[in-house]
Amino acid sequence: MSTTTASADAPVEILVVEDSPTQAQRLQHILEQQGYHVTVAANGREALAAAEQRKPTLIISDVVMPVMDGYQLCRHVKGDDGLGETPVILVTTLSDPHDVIRGLECRADNFILKPYDERYLLGRVQFVLVNREMRRAEQSGMGVEICFNGQKHFITADRLQILNLLLSTYEAAIQRNRELTRTQEELHRLNAELAAANQELEAFSYSVSHDLRAPLRAIDGFSQALVEDGAEKLDERSQGHLQRVRAATQRMGELIDDLLNLARVSRAQMHQRHVDLSDLGARVADGLRRTDPERQVEIVIASGLVANGDPRLLQVVLENLLGNAWKFTSKQPNARIELGLDRSANPPTFFLRDNGAGFDMTYAGKLFGAFQRLHSASEFPGTGVGLATVQRVIHRHGGRIWAEAEVGKGATFYFTLQT
Fold first, then answer.
1. pLDDT bucket at 187, cuts 50 / 70 / 90
2. Is the pTM of this model over 0.70?
3. Domain spans in the chain, listed from the N-terminal domain onward
4. Distance between the two ends of the chain, CA-based, in angstroms?
5. By CB neighbour count within 10 A (0-12 exposed, 13-18 middle, 19+ buried), where does 387 fall?
6. Whether CATH 3.40.50.2300 fits 13-157
């Protein structure tokens, strides 16, 4: 790369204006590796003094700086008789079209997008240096009046300077679009890998759970045969051991069933339609009453609760949420459960509220983890998979679920669905 100007013997002196020492050192290092002579200033005012003294071939300035910003510096340089022909490159985020207008107004020669690639930066520097003499030849005293957002701006830069600045702006936009495209492609790739890994994990869970059923059935069957045919031959301690085997087998069966259910709701094809959650909730509540007819629980289900989703999967949601509310209000003499919709929320949010045992919000982060329990099994039975299943279904519908509770005063589960 050539590091001389049109007057072949003169070295290229570049003035870097940057208030961040780290950014300034990086830029200085990049340029000096190419053989340029570099002077650094921390703000526009220091840069003007350095420019008067050193007469740089090129100025590269950050836009946002204390004391005097890059636009003000550029305007002062272009208005100075001794410095006016010095090209100025502004380093900016180009976050707003007004940046381009201000760059034109202060007669900047080029934009460099921040953060910048080293090769792109050096290409811009070389381009500006090569075109410096062309700009002199094309210089014209004519101005251009433009209107942007209802405001008039008078641009006095020469035609080539305007063209170069606009081209650099367009090039920066293309560069940003390329980076965005690369990021999106990488995101798609990672999402595909994650989806494949999840499918493999779910298939593995399903296979393991299914394969565990056969030996578990054998243990359950033979232990039951021992209870029926040979229990009287065992002493009390041995009978106790046998009962523990039976209880553990049943517990393992419940865990496998719940794990299979979790795998099924993750793998099942969804057939979305309008679902009457009021009717679905009423049917689930009737089933709970039939299984435990002695309990007196007030269940209030709002009318007109409709969502767009898979009926089978949404039934799983209500079975688990209503089932949990039924279970955790079992020690409450005046148990109450309510299913409703907060239409004022954005988006509208369904809720399932009870006045049962509640839980400590300190542990709310564990609530939807598989096999996580906030109450002991002896206090409230269960495997700890139900809420993980509910969350999986809600997420598959593009919604979210969370909960609020207070120990001894009940819990409220909130979830969103397309309505």
1. confident
2. no
3. 13-157, 187-267, 269-419
4. 63
5. buried
6. yes
